[in-house]
Amino acid sequence: MTHASAAVDQPIPVQIPLREIIPWAVFVGILAFVVLYFVSTEEGATALFSGGYVHEFVHDGRHLLAFPCH
Question: What is the full DSSP assignment across 4-69?
Fold first, then answer.
């Protein structure tokens, strides 16, 4: 029995220049710090918003990440 094999072209990886990645990396870093602030310290004296709406919204995430809140 003979096997016929077709030539399969290998995909060529695309190279992304570093100067195109840096703005996205900075944006993701800032976004991560904002999320970390709201999950960890948006409560009490350091609150940016009045009321407990943000605290209640991220309450379960706060306990999941081992931040004490009460």
Answer: -----PPPPPPPPPHHHHHHHHHHHHHHHHHHHHHHHT-SGGG-SSSSSHHHHHTHHHHHHTT---
| pTM given for the model | 0.59
Indicate the burial class of 69 (C-beta count within 10 angstroms; 0-12, 13-18, 19 or more): middle
Q: What is the chain's length? A: 70
CA–CA dist 25, 41 (Å, integer): 24
Residues of the chain with pLDDT under 70: 1-5, 42, 44-46
Tokens of 46: 């350091």
